[in-house]
Amino acid sequence: MKNIMLAAACVLLSCSAFAKKVKFAVNMSAQVVDTGGVHIAGDFQSEAGYIGGDWITDSTPMTQEVSDTNIYSVVVDIPAFACYQFKFVNGIHGYNQEFVPLESRVNYNFLDSRWIYIDSLSNDTQLVGPIMYAGNAPIGKYLMRFYVDMSLVTVNTNGAHVAGLFQGWNPATTRLYSFDNVVYEYIAYVDTGINSFQHEYKFANGNSTGDLEVLPGWCTSQAGNRQTTVPKDTMLPTICYSYCSTCATIGIDESELAPAFGLYPNPAADVVNITFSDNKLIHHIAVTDINGRRVKDARNYVYDTARLDVGDLKPGVYFISVSSDDGVRSVQKLIRN
What DSSP assignment string belongs to 83-110? Predict the structure, then answer.
């Protein structure tokens, strides 16, 4: 009997050792709350001890908070180092589940639920939200979803992370999760406002400063970081770890993309001059913004110098790409002031 009790105690201790308190919260200010109350359903309910199994829409009620009556929340104990999917429910029935926007969805195998990866055993409560019901982020925040393709590297046993100003440049606190062991991702909520649109960040293959990726200089900020603009809920492009493009386009060393043309003035306000130095007869020019969107192009230049009007572009960082008919490409960074 003592051995049985000891074994049972060990099981309980093992479970609790990997348990983490997680607080799910939702903002219902834009909704008429159903008379059945607000609930949450997901694949964590069995682990949290709720009867009936997972994805039961009426078994996990959320409590209206006193400090802000628009907020409904519930605290659960669930195992750490696991990914969970969930939805908020305005009522008790399956048809009362929220419609999750694309930016927040699992977006894998056509699943349309929210997701969260619990990677910490710290003695605190991890807060999820309060997310706007059927929305992407808390009030006053934008969703910023990172993607990095790790297929060209061996992922560190400490995991892949992202660090940036949005989380204090700590490469140990923001772990990425992968649904397919290739592309790793993370959803952050960043401040809105005109002064908060620009973000710099780096991925880390590990969880220390020494694990931060080293990037080619032509696609980085002056500090050597990745950079992007987030004027709304944003899903960033899937980028290859330690590169400035997708892994599928990397067939040669990026050093071969070193600038083969002159670019002046830089920074530029109205017009930028491009001088070609590769002895090619025809050149094609493309201008892309920091998110990889093509904003201007000009094909079939047959002169030694091209004048490109950039006065209609918003101030910021752009990339000038020059290619020839034989497929050779060169890229430089342009600052539009």
Answer: EEEEEEEESSSGGGB----GGGS--STT
Are residues 187 and 232 in contact, defined by beta-carbon separation less than 8 angstroms? Answer: no
Q: Structure pTM?
A: 0.71
* 300 and 284 Cβ atoms separated by less than 8 Å: yes
Any idea of the CA torsion for 257, 258, 262, 264, to the nearest 10 degrees? 100
CA distances from 228 to 18, 202, 272, 292, 317 (A): 36, 11, 22, 10, 9
Which three-class secondary structure state does DSSP give residue 218?
helix
List all residues 6 or more positions away from 14 whose beta carbon is below 8 Å from its beta carbon. Answer: none
Largest CA distance in the chain: 91
Contact 185, 177 (CB under 8 A): yes
pLDDT tens for residues 289-299? Answer: 776 677 887 77
C-alpha span between 79 and 45 (Å, rounded)? 11
Structure tokens, 173: 């606190």
25-60 pLDDT, tens digit per residue, is 999 999 999 999 999 999 999 999 999 999 999 999
The residue among 24, 8, 11 whose CA lies nearest residue 84 is 24
Other beta carbons within 10 angstroms of residue 90's beta carbon come to 21
Taking only the tens place, the pLDDT of each residue in 231-255 is: 899 998 888 999 888 787 675 444 4
Give me the residue label for tokens 């950079």. 227
Quote the CA–CA distance of 61 and 92 in Å, as a whole number: 9
Calpha distance 169→295 (Å, rounded): 31
Q: Cα(first)–Cα(last) distance of the chain, in Å?
A: 78
Within 13 Å and on the Cβ side, how many CA atoms surround 223?
10
Phi-psi sector, 316: left (phi>0), alpha (psi -120 to 50), beta: left
DSSP H/E element including 131: strand 125-132
